[in-house]
Structure formats: C-alpha cells, structure tokens
Amino acid sequence: MAGTERLEGERRRGFAETMGPYLRPRPLAALLLGISSGFPLALLLGTMTFWLAKVGIEKKTIGFAIGLTTPYTLKFLWAPLIDRLKLPVLTRLFGQRRSWLFLIQALLFASVWMLGASQPELHLGVFAFWAIVTAFLAATQDIVIDAYRIEILPEAELPHGTANNQFGYRLGAFIAGVGTIAMASPEGLGLGWAMAYGLTGLCVLPGALAAFWAGPGLHDRVLEREPGQRAGAWLETTLIGPFREFLQRRGAVLILLFVLIYKLGDAMGQSMLNPMIVELGFSDTEFLAIKPGLAPALHSGDPAFDGLSGYLLEKLGPALGSLLDAATAAGEIRADVSPQDLLYAVAKLCAPLPDEEPDYGRRMVALLVDGLRPGGIQR
After folding, report:
1. Is residue 260 classed exposed, middle or buried when 0-12, 13-18 and 19+ CB atoms within 10 A define those classes?
2. Are 54 and 175 in a shared domain?
3. Top-confidence residue, 290 or 152
C-alpha cells in the first residue's frame, strides 16, 4: 500500500511539474491572446457560410463571400505600418503594441456586432461591407497579437507560451463556430444571429485583459531609442527595408511558395463544407454534433465513446481527430447515412486496444471506404 501511494505521489508531482510552465503568468497571457486571435476567422468562414446557407443565399454568392476574408492574405502589406505608426495619446498611455491592440479590438467588437445585425437575406451589400471591415480589423489584430506575444514571452517560456497560444486560438475558433451557432439556432439557445454574433464579439476581452496584465512589449524600448525621421527615411525603415531584407534571405521564395500552397487543400475542401451540410438537410443539432471535438461530449455516457476517449488519450492522440474528420466527410458525402451512425461505428471500431486487435488500422480504413457504399454502415 505504501509503495502504491508513493508511486501515485510521484505521478502527481510529475504531472504538476509538466503543467507548471504552462500555468505561469506570461504563457497564460499568451493563451488569452490566442482566444481573441482565433475567433474572428472562424466566425467569418465556417459560421458565416453556415448562416448564409441557412437563410437561402445561393452557393455562388457564398463562394464570393468567402473572398471577403482576403485581408487575412494581404495583411503583410500594412504590418510594417502597425509596427511603426504611433497613435496619438494611446501610444503614450499604453505603448505601441497595446495601443493598437485596444483600438483595433474596440473597432472589431463593433464591426462583429454590426455584421450580426446586417440581415444578409435582406441587405447582402451591407452584410458584405461589414464582413470585409471585420476581416480587415481581425487581420490587423493578428498582426499586433503575433508581435506582442513574442515580445512579452521570455526565451525560456516561449515554447510554452506558443503552445498555449495555439490552444487559445483553437478555443476561440471553437467558441466562434460551435458556440455562435448554438446561441443563434432555434434548436439551441435561440438568441438569433445578431445577439449571437454580438456575444461572440466579447472574445476580444481575454486579449485585452492579457495586455493589461502583461504590460508593454519590448518594441517600445526600440522606438524610444530611434530619433525622429523624415518621411523618406521613415518609409524606407517601415516598408521597403523589411521586404528587401526578407527577399534577400536564402530560400525566401521557397518559403513564400510553401505558405501559398500548404493550406490549399483546406481552402478548396473546407470553404463550402458548411453550405453542403445545410443543403443535405442536416439539422443544426446534427451539425453541432459532428463538429470535431464535440461529438464525444454530446454522446457522454455511451460506452463506445468512452472507449474512444480512452483510446484517444492512450494510443492515437491527434491522429484520431483526423479520423473523425474523415468519418464526418464520409457522412456528408452519403446523405442517407447519418453522422451519428458513422461516428458510432468509428467509436466502436476504435475501442479495442492494439494488442487486442492488431489490424485496427486496416479496419479503420476499411470502415471509411465502406461508409461510402449504400448499406455499408451497420450498428
């Protein structure tokens, strides 16, 4: 008994030591910044396309609406300006990074609220205007947060802060995706799209609180040491110089090509996913159930999903998330197979441990292929 208690104590200490660096003030601030950074893009892509499809907007118009997020692609053009341009009063009070962050977040909250109240089925032009304004402000917020996060994290805490920031980003995207739809849907809280978007806009608050908590960034010291510059010199330092310096680096063109194409598959395959789900007749509840990460929670108490959760933690880790995505895609292709049936079957398939079922990987693939044929899925 004493040996068991000693091992349990060591296990708990090991867990505390592992998690400790992630719970320090600066990495926690990075997590909060990630929440504010992650929600707008999910709101503009996944949630917006779902909303437009629900109110009967044509698919070609929805495809055009996705192009309203172009500011995310072009934000590198004005990033140097955000780096150098000082705001009257605000920069003196809060510093370069935080002054821009507070201003952009205030405008972003207002634009998200106006976007939610724009009624696209009646005023599509007004909706498009507020969508592109929101995209521009959200992209600018990303510029500020990316720079500020790096400046507030000491080198020793940079890996933990970066991991926390990514988790916060996913959390913000989850809130803006599943959370907003659940608030707006009559099958959920039934608050309507205007209120749902407005409440989702409050996701700017974690980032603002983190900025107050963490203090000014290191960039302020650099600006204080720089003397006043004429317009030409300022333009050289702010815009021309950074681009020239990057393009002179070895492999710069390859890096740009990689950034251009590595998300091409997602862009092509995911953009119209939500409108397709709506067109196939899935209910809002079913849509929420098949969103990655939510299905196990909605099926709590189901032994199959209990086995899936344990298997996820012990054996597959992130790989199972991709498997569930694939199963979901199969359910969307086959309109006569419900997503619950597919996820249930995948969960039952994953429950055995590898030593009990050595060819579990082959069976997973076989299930997904079988799911594309009529009558292929049986409980």
Report:
1. exposed
2. yes
3. 152
- If asked whether residues 233 and 143 sit together in one domain, one would say yes
DSSP class of residue 156 equals G
| Residues 106, 27 share a domain | yes
Same domain, 271 and 216: no
Q: Is 119 left (phi over 0), alpha (psi -120 to 50) or beta?
A: left
Count of H-run helices and E-run strands, the chain: 25, 0
How would you write 44-83 as a 3-class SS string? HHHHHHHHHHHCCCCHHHHHHHHHHHCHHHHHHHCHHHHH
Instruction: Compute the residue count for the chain.
Output: 379
CA dist list (Å): 292 to 173, 308, 321, 339: 12, 13, 7, 12
Q: Per the domain annotation, does 375 fall within a domain?
A: no
Written as one string, the DSSP assignment of 16-29 is HHHHGGGGSHHHHH
Least Cα distance to 43 among 114, 147, 144, 98 occurs for 114
Q: pLDDT tens across 232-268, in order?
A: 777 777 778 878 888 888 888 888 888 777 766 666 6
Give the CATH number for residue 249.
1.20.1250.20
In sign, the C-alpha dihedral spanning 42, 47, 52, 53 is positive
In a domain, 2, yes or no: no
Same domain, 226 and 291: no
More confident residue, 283 or 145: 145
Could you tell me the pTM of the whole model? 0.70
How many domains is the chain partitioned into structurally?
2
pLDDT number for residue 273: 77
Tell me which residue range forms the domain holding 236. 18-253
